[in-house]
Design goal:
Elements lengths: L1 H14 L6 E6 L5 H17 L4 E3 L6 H9 L3 E3 L10 E4 L6 H9 L3 E4 L3 H15 L3 E5 L5 H7 L6 E4 L2 H5 L9 E5 L5 H14 L13 H13 L5 E5 L5 H12 L4 E4 L15 E6 L5 H15 L2 E6 L11 H9 L1
Parallel strand pairs: 1-11, 1-12, 2-3, 2-4, 4-5, 6-7, 6-8, 9-10, 9-11
Helix pairs in contact: 5-6, 9-10
Keywords: 4Fe-4S, Iron, Iron-sulfur, Isoprene biosynthesis, Metal-binding, Oxidoreductase
Protein name: 4-hydroxy-3-methylbut-2-enyl diphosphate reductase
Enzyme class: oxidoreductase
């Protein structure tokens, strides 16, 4: 009797169908208002002025987007000496320092400023605090384009910190005028840890009335935090140099599930899904929806995946195209 029961169980386990894959599409995901504005601005510039446009750094940190514009004749440069005098130059969504703006004028470049308004807000805050003789602590990642631009506004007044440990090394006293600002694309958790350390060490420190971390960064992180417990694996569409995309990937790791940051369908590996029936997919603020849908279609065909989209917050923020675009149009 027991033997028959055992044989029946074994036979059933061999014929039991695999658990179908479920894709959970996190929403909001992908383009934020600042990225959408910058990309639309570059599209419009190409339409108005043709190819031969230069962009200082990547328009946004996404390889798909950069490759698309490169094919249309746009050149991305890291040194303004690469830009012929008199050319059209577009500043990326991450913003630039006054030094770069000054150099662009020296080279008689026709500049279009596609800086995200939320980044511009941080620049203006830096200038305000510097004028008021504050020592400014900028919480951010060294070498990031946004951080370089912000620090360039008042280099003699700004000190960069990345971690709570960095706060302990600061030379300031509790008697000095201190203010803190943050990079807009930080993880809310990592920023909170550093800000808490700053406030604990320097009770007198001040900050802007409204936090600097981008609404879209926060919303995308919140969505993943809420949905990741329902998943076996997290896929984040975005490029490796995208700070906000990296932060999304870290959330999966924090929750103890495999998390992968990928540019698109070509990066997918079948072995990732061997023991994963529930896949959470999101996209960083600079990743286009087309790369998300390519991955979804790949998994649908390969694993017969079913798709469930979960919307946790509606985003209605929009930024107008920069005035400098229209000004240039009227002068050429």
């Amino acid at each position: 009797m027991n033997t028959k029961s055992h044989l029946f169980t074994c036979s059933a386990s061999k014929t039991r169908p695999e658990i179908p894959m479920e894709i959970i599409l996190a929403n909001p995901r992908g383009f934020c208002a600042g990225v959408n504005m910058a990309i639309t601005c570059l599209e419009e510039a190409v339409r108005l002025f043709g190819s031969g446009i230069y962009v200082y750094h990547e328009i946004v940190h996404n390889q798909y987007v950069v490759n698309r514009f490169t094919k249309e004749g746009v050149s991305f440069v890291n040194d303004l000496k690469e830009v012929p005098e008199g050319s059209i130059l577009l500043f990326s969504a991450h913003g630039v320092s006054p030094e770069i703006r000054s150099l662009a004028k020296e080279r008689r470049l026709k500049s279009i400023d596609a800086t995200c308004p939320l980044v511009t807000k941080v620049h203006l805050e830096a200038l305000k605090y510097a004028r008021e003789n504050y020592n400014i602590i900028l919480v951010g990642h060294e070498g990031h384009d946004e951080v370089i631009g912000t620090m360039g506004e008042a280099p003699e007044s700004i000190t960069l910190v990345e971690t709570a440990e960095d706060v302990e090394k600061l030379p300031f006293t509790t008697e000095e005028r201190l203010a803190y600002l943050t990079q807009t694309t930080l993880s809310v958790q990592e920023a909170t840890e550093v800000i808490t350390a700053l406030k604990n060490r320097y009770p007198q420190i001040v900050s802007p009335p409204k936090e600097d971390i981008c609404y879209a960064t926060t919303n995308r992180q919140d969505a993943v935090h809420q949905l990741v417990t329902q998943a076996d694996i997290l896929l984040v569409l975005g490029s490796q140099n995208s700070s906000n995309s990296q932060r999304l990937k870290e959330i999966g790791s924090t929750h103890g599930i495999p998390a992968y940051l990928i540019d698109g369908e070509a990066d997918l590996k079948d072995e990732w899904f061997k023991d994963s029936s529930r896949v959470l997919i999101t996209a960083g603020a600079s990743a286009p929806e087309v790369v998300v849908q390519d991955c979804v279609e790949h998994l649908r065909k390969k694993f017969n995946a079913q798709i469930k989209e979960v919307t946790l917050q509606e985003e209605k923020v929009q930024f107008p195209l920069p005035k400098s675009l229209r000004v240039l149009q009227n002068t050429i």
